[in-house]
Amino acid sequence: xxxxxxxxxxxxxxxxxxxxxxxxxxxxxxxxxxxxxxGNTSYAWRREIWFDPDHCVRDMDAKGIDMRLMSLTSxxxxxxxxxxxxxxxxxLNDDMFAYCERRPDRYRGxxxxxxxxxxxxxxxxxxxxxxxxxxGIAMGSSLDKIPLNHKSLEPVWARLDELRIPVVEHPVYPxxxxxxxxxxxxxxxxxxxxxxxxxxxxxYAGIFERYPxxxxxxxxxxxALLMLMERLDNGYRIFPDCRKDITRLPSxxxxxxxxxxxxxxxxxxxxxxxxxxxxxxMFGTDYPYIGHGDPSHVTQLPVSDAxxxxxxxxxxxxxxxxx
Length: 323
Prior knowledge:
By secondary structure, the chain is an alpha/beta fold. Helices cover 39% and strands 18% of the residues. The protein has helices at 12-18, 55-63, 82-101, 118-128, 154-163, 185-204, 207-210, 229-238, 250-254, 266-275, 296-299, 305-319, and strands spanning 3-8, 24-30, 33-38, 41-47, 67-71, 107-111, 134-140, 142-143, 146-147, 167-170, 216-218, 258-260, 281-282. The strands form 3 sheets. An 8-stranded parallel beta sheet has the order 1-5-6-7-10-11-12-13. Strands 2-3-4 form a 3-stranded antiparallel beta sheet. Strand 2 (24-30) and strand 3 form a beta hairpin. Helix 3 packs parallel to helix 4. It starts with a strand and ends with a helix.
């Protein structure tokens, strides 16, 4: 069974919300296609064909993908004012689950939480987790400039840990884009920076030591995180600040995480295969934003068929509880 853990649910309500963000403009690129711009770079983009309710299933059928876990892309609901977040998260979660209900054999949903209002987020978590197609939480790499190791999130991590609910991370548009105003650098490079810094903060802050029971899936094969493994370990060995909240090397926590295949690089995936093992890797396509995304970037890996089976779906089936 091939399960795509990095696939995005798109609908008009989400794009309409993005258009309310100060500074967002729209640029038509071709008939039926446009970019949502922030300054001189892309913030999001859309194709009218994506809103066809059967587009995703046709894409899956063409590429030999059995199931997709649907989630919002950047900026999730995190950039909006607290009151708007609460309402928007509820509406978008309902929209997504209604979408998944059209093909419950092919979809599961990763819900969004209004984390600017922790009590409301806890209420929403309890509401959505009762849905039969719920399989986890989608969360950005930061919460509108608030890092994921912020103390306000401790009740969230504790509850997710208690319930053993998977969390799928996705980078968000960087809060500081000074000097990144060309060549689409905020998304091309800024996304990778966001993921790398977010996970480094969480590891050093001891989140995964205090709460070891909820699976955490990192986007884009971990960005630069795995390449920094020894450097982060050396930080622990050298600097008191890097070990004040944890009792063992950062690499031990990095090996507890899961990494999707959306780097699309065979070399990056082989690094993950060597450093964390095939049991910690999952298949993802970044649908619909990477139109050519299919399982070939996994099936071409020079690893055993058993390892490919784990990456393509075996690990996701186990972690997300997919029957």
